[in-house]
Amino acid sequence: MSEVVIGEGLSDREVAAPKKERTFVMIKPGCVERGLIGAVIERFERAGLTIAAVKLVQLTRQVAETQYAEHEGEYYYEGLITYMISGPTIAVVLEGDDAINVARETAGKTDPREAEFGTIRADFGTDTRHNVVHAADSEAAAKREIEIHFPELS
């Protein structure tokens, strides 16, 4: 029988313990209007994430522009901002092992038509703007977005 070495050069802790982290997601106005908040949050919880903070928010234009600053100048920017301030949103901080990647995988691809069956966007989204949920795409984005919406956690 041959020996298999997993994680050679890493300590047991590095091999055994996935990275605990926090991420930010926002349930978009159309999802709130359709009464899907519970269904969306349940998907994240079933994926092993827990809620660290949650609040109902009516975004101001200024906060929406800060949130989506990296999209400024894109053809869809104004429509995105208008949509995000059109009704209440749910801002959520999720935590767990590899939370950023788990949340992104659970949400699915940005375009619901391209998202894998069983993801939030495939099941509930209609197009790239009305795709139910925003999920931070990196550790830096998660940190920045948590600071925007939950400064008390920073």
Can you tell me about this structure?
The chain is of the alpha+beta class and 154 residues long. It has a single domain, classed as Alpha-Beta Plaits, CATH 3.30.70.141. Helix content is 39%, strand content 18%. It is built from eight helices and four strands; from the N terminus they run αβααβααβααβα. Strands 2-3-1-4 form a four-stranded antiparallel β-sheet, with helices on both faces.
Provide keyphrases for this structure:
Alpha-Beta Plaits; four-stranded antiparallel sheet; 8 helices; 4 strands; 39% helix; globular
CATH architect. name: 2-Layer Sandwich
State the share of residues found in helices, binned by percent. Answer: 25-40%
Question: Low-confidence spans: pLDDT under 50, at least 5 residues?
Answer: 1-8
Which superfamily, in CATH terms, is the homologous superfamily? Nucleoside diphosphate kinase-like domain
Structural class: alpha+beta
Helical segment count: 8
Largest sheet: 4 strands, antiparallel
Spatial gap, N to C terminus: 52 Å
Q: Give the class-level CATH name.
A: Alpha Beta
**Strand order in the largest sheet:** 2-3-1-4
| Beta strand count | 4
Shape: globular
What fraction of the residues are assigned to beta strands by DSSP? 15-25%
Mean pLDDT figure: 91
Provide the domain count: 1
Series of H and E elements: HEHHEHHEHHEH
Which fold name corresponds to the CATH topology? Alpha-Beta Plaits
Radius of gyration, in Å, reads: 17 Å
